[in-house]
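=== Structure Prediction Worksheet ===
Name of assembly: unnamed complex
Input type: mixed (protein and possibly other molecules)
Chain count: two
Listed entries:
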Amino acid sequence: MDTLIAAIDESAAARAVVTAGLEIARLFGDELVVLTVCDDGPGRTSTEVTNAFGLPLQVRHGRAVSEIVAAAEAPDVRGVVLGTRGLPSAKRAVGSTALELIQTLDKPVVVVPPTALVDTGRVHRLLVPLDGTGETAAAVELLLRRLQPDAELDVVALHVFDAESIPAFSDQAGHEAETWTDEFMRRWLPNVKGDVRLETRVGRPASVVPAVARETRSEAVALAWKQNLSPGRAQVVTELIAGPDVIVVLLRVADGPGD
Amino acid sequence: MFDWDGTAVPDRDSDATEVRVLVEALCATAMHVAIVTGTHIDNVDDQLRARPRGPGRLLVAVNRGSEVFEVDEQGPRLLYRREASPAENAALDQAAAATIEQLAARGVEAALVSQRLNRRKIDVIPLPAWADPPKARIDELLAAVEARLAAAGIHGLLEVVSIAEAAARAAGLPDPRVTSDAKHVEIGLTDKSDAARDLFSRLWDEGIGPGLVLVGGDEFGLLGGLPGSDSLMLVPEARGVTCISVGVEPTGVPPGVIALGGGPARFLELLADQVRRRDNRDVPGIDARAGWTLSYAGIDHERERAVEAVLTLADGTIGTSGAPLLSHPSATPGVVIAGVYRGDDAAADLVDAPRWDRLGPAAVGDEQLSRTLDLHTGVLVEHVADTVQIDSVRFSSLARPGTAVLRVAAPNTMPGPALTTVDAESDTVHRDGATEWAVVRGKARAACVAATQDVREGIVDRVAAYEALDAPSGAHDGALARLVDARAAGFDHLLAEHRRAWAGRWAAADVGIAGDDDLQLATRVALFHLMASVATSGDATVGARGLSGHGYRGHVFWDSDVFVLPFLAATHPPAARAMLEYRVRRLDVAMEAALAEGRVGARFPWESATFGDDVTPRSVRDRSGHVTPIRTGWAEVHIVADIAWAAAHYIDWTADRAFAEDDGHRLFVETARYWTSRVRVDNDGAHLYGVIGPDEYHEPVDDNMFTNVMARWNLRRAAASAQRVGGIDAAEVTKWLDLADALVDGFDPATGVYEEFAGFHTLEPLLISEVARRPIVADLLLGRSRVRAAQVVKQADVLMAHHLVPDECEGGSLASNLDYYEPRTAHGSSLSPGVHAALLARVGRLDEALSWLRLAAQVDLTDVTQTTAGGLHLATMGSVWQALAWGFAGVRALPEALRVDPRLPDELDALELRVQYHGVPVRIEIGHEATTITATRPVPLVFGEAAVALVSGPDGVTVPNDNGRH
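=== Predicted Assembly ===
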């Protein structure tokens, strides 16, 4: 069994992070380890939250980013779960620690907003945007292949056509979409067992992906990206992690052009 | 192909029994044997005495290229003879006499030894010592001749030949063939090069390209400064042959010729080796020729399924994906059977039949695989160089459709069963001894397949026979009987007849394009699949993706009638007739559909499968995520006229009177009757309300120009047919004609532009050419409602009428409507580029035409739509031919004449088409300045728009191009 680290602090997001961490660990068959980084001893919130879930709390001392990165380096660690911000009303959507971590860690990072999974504690539906490139598909496929057989997760793939990628031809709408979808799934998710439904939309991915996540009532979105938050890049990631309630699973792909 | 004297036999007197045995053995394994010799047929035949029983052919080209015989059980039979005219004979006599005279003047006594067919033979060393020198003493003979000539101050044989050539030209022979075997100099009209050209052409028509030909001789090197006589066999058409010499070759051999030496004994060893290879069941090769073969190395996961569609092997009856023989995760193997569907209504889909091409259980790696499809012979070769090694050929027999053949050398893998089921629960493979068989149940038709394989010494020979039944289930006897027949014929015979069948189809249908190799190959790929997808008998069910995949569920659209059929009507009428038979047999259902609508006549369905009822889906979740109703099923009624048009088109090309007066006539009449009940007549004319035209972005609309004009044409054609055939009440015919005249078509004489439908001109005047790259699916880009409210056209609509029924459109209106509609067209259907290419060519916009044509030709080869995995865009392939034939060549079958009106773009060097007009094969060779038209029998021609009646015969007519100057 591999390990998933839930990194919490004294903010109000700690409970959501642990809740989401437990759920993600269940889906993928990992063991959750809760970690906090502090100067002295663990604070009240982190202690209370871990006690409430009956989980031990690992404590490290030092700079939060460096310590979390160091903890994640262990070979059995699959990924790290982080909170986006202290409070839903906080001015900045994503804290500086989280921003630095998602651009630094070379393992998947799960970014959890403070109100995630407040109702049921369960992720029923995962949205996986596919941009029609091999590297995105490979990252998503790697994730999906690790899904536990009893995960009971509904996976919805999404491809967004923009002005550049709209096809040249569509002879008969009644058949073209079916044929195109068959090939798209064979091409990009050939080895995923079970049913994955494909949704397609037209528009700007940064606005369409969050909208489809809401429309499909997906509690989580898995995104492949290149860890580059410079202006004009990773607009879907930026848009989603700033949002109020969707868990974002960030899957790192190799550097190169694109988002 | 080999020389006789000195190569196959030491001399004309030697015993040729061994050669005979080998030649007959080779022919028995379907190998073709061609002998090239200077002597006459009796000499060779008396010596060889071969009486092969086939299936391989024995061809004997004698008299130095002037005659070609075929020898079979009955003996030699003349295939071709070059007949010299009296003037040519006189010139030959004169040239020979002049040569002897000039040599005598130089002190060399030479003698005319024979006056054979088309040549005169002069002995330059008429001495008893050299009366009949054996071939083995060729170098001694040459030395003696050269010494004799040198003594007279003549510079060898070369000078004697020059003297003879000059004498022949002086005698009036523009292209004399002067040859020498050292002892003789011959002046003739033909030589071995003519023999070789004839034989390579005959072999090509057997599906044997030069790459499969072994050329043997003994005199390739220079002889007395002259090219060796056998080197004359190496004509340009021979490029790619394997060439060996068994002669002494005192001066060596030219590049590309392998000097084996050893004389006839060595040559017979080579023939024996060929027999042995057949006995050992070696895997045969293909002629890997540029412009004719399509090769893919390795497996690219993203492209693989599209590649497999492009490599589909089909024979009009079954289609087999070009997936690798061994399993691979990216592959989608599959076999479909024409017309055999499962499921009801819109869910009707071609059944997945048991597969004959699976080899297992091993899997193949990405890099170790190579596949090459030979378009000329419809043979797919596949090699695997991995831990598992495979060398294979396979084909779906065009000579006996439904029969699939595989030979594999796979020394280190188990072949697995001959048949592999797709769905083990519903398709059980039964085994009966070495035979495997299965019955696949369809909706109305079942299919049976029987297969067997012979596995010996690492070679697998597998044969499968598929048979569609006209019942939902049935016995496998038919398939079994076909399997037994195929097995009895044997692999070599099956391959030979298949190659010949494909070569025959190409001989009648090829389009040659000089100056654009990519377009040439892409065009051949298109024609290959058009030919492979359509049966030539019965009722050919041709789905939108042919037999190359499950895309569009195998449903039949206007694609078949309007885009696929024309190529076949012009090149292989039986296939076009079989496509029409599909409609004829569903005419009753179409008449019931009309009644169900409260109308009369025949209402053919927009989408059709087994029964001919409408199987169009009723809604779709499109790619913008919206669920949209699909109205084409009830409103795209132009299909009714399209089918009548296909029948008329077929009749125009073939003059098939039996069809025209019976089934064709019924199609015209019942489709016309439908229009009479569909049209509404108001004070301002007759109208068709609530229809969808080819521009499906606007639906439903009133008075769609294409629909109205096609209906008008349909009514008039039915009236013409009724007047010819009779049996229809005159009042009804008059009603059709009146209605046709009353149908509005939206033409504005002031602008010369038709309105696509009532109200089109009031829509938002959006020029899609200025706001988006094209082609593009504009309803996805802009949204359906925006496109519906704008002048954005999906594909040729008004222009489609110009394309199909130009005579129903106002004269001269093509250019104005192209100017108006092309920039408004998104080309969001793959049917659009080819049609526009054809029309742009007609108005002389040749560069644009070529550009759209190139795009259309690449749709599947580059998987432009990312849907080629679901099957090939067969209609687009048909549009490629139409752009070339109707567009650039301006070829149209008029009822009374064949029209040719070429426009060749600057970027192309030449275009050559083959068609068959009223049963006569016609070849049209278009250059920039002139066009040559050749036909085996006289054909009435119209060249250009001007009614210049020409009669073409076997020698052809050459006409300067009009290039639209009329």
